[in-house]
Amino acid sequence: MSEPVLALERVEKVYNRDLPSEVQVLRGASLAIAPGEVVALVAPSGAGKSTLLHIAGLLDTADRGSVRIGGQEMTGASDRRRTMARRADIGFVYQFHHLLPEFSALENIVLPQLAAGVRARVAEARARDLLVSVGVGARADHRPSALSGGEQQRVAFCRALANGPRLLLADEPTGNLDPATSDTVFGALMGLVRETGLAALIATHNLELAARMDRILHLEDGRLA
Ligand SMILES: Nc1ncnc2c1ncn2[C@@H]1O[C@H](COP(=O)(O)OP(=O)(O)OP(=O)(O)O)[C@@H](O)[C@H]1O
């Protein structure tokens, strides 16, 4: 089997250690996601989904266990190396779009590319292609406030993929949308992910959406099964 894009091994995480409020969220969580594989992460509220995604996305560190991105061991890596790996390899999507309100949809997708050193004309062409591929090409020049919730979220997907990451991490990406919109927007996300051959870990409470992914992982009692 090819090298997993994301591999977690026996990851443990405790918040507020040695305080009365101590909570052990992860108790040996392990997973491996292959290139091109789309995996659903399903868990009861408060089970530690966001914690797991933050650790996988190198935004937080585990107390124990190992995190590898593209075969590179990230446990104990310097902040600089983790930041570089995060920028180069990982795209994030959240429940709320977090687009920059004073910039257009197009600019929101161009800016991270400019920050990564891509030339403006190339960045703009890529941003337009991405917007067209998720069905919001006609909205390129609108600011986020002039877009519907579903359109905003589709723009957020494009932004997450702008710099060609190899791993997409999504935390309830359609959780804020009504069921019909959620279905359409999820379809757009899957289209993008399949087109680019990304590996993805997508947290959702929606079991119908989870069933459309390649595999479902359940997070319970701090472990994945
Ligand atoms: N920074 C923190 N300090 C202390 N406790 C925390 C912290 N972050 C999360 N927790 C606790 O850890 C547990 C898991 O939180 P997490 O946000 O990962 O859950 P979740 O599965 O994403 O929940 P939800 O589906 O409701 O968003 C919860 O009990 C939460 O209260």
TrEMBL record:
Domain of life: Bacteria
GO terms of biological process kind: lipoprotein localization to outer membrane; protein localization to outer membrane
Signal peptide: none
Family annotation (InterPro entries): AAA+_ATPase (IPR003593), ABC_transporter-like_ATP-bd (IPR003439), ABC_transporter-like_CS (IPR017871), ABC_transpr_LolD-like (IPR015854), MacB-like_ATP-bd (IPR017911), P-loop_NTPase (IPR027417)
Keywords associated with the record: ATP-binding, Lipoprotein, Nucleotide-binding, Transport
Span of domain ABC transporter: 9-225
A GO term from the CC aspect: plasma membrane
Family: Belongs to the ABC transporter superfamily.
UniProt protein name: Lipoprotein-releasing system ATP-binding protein
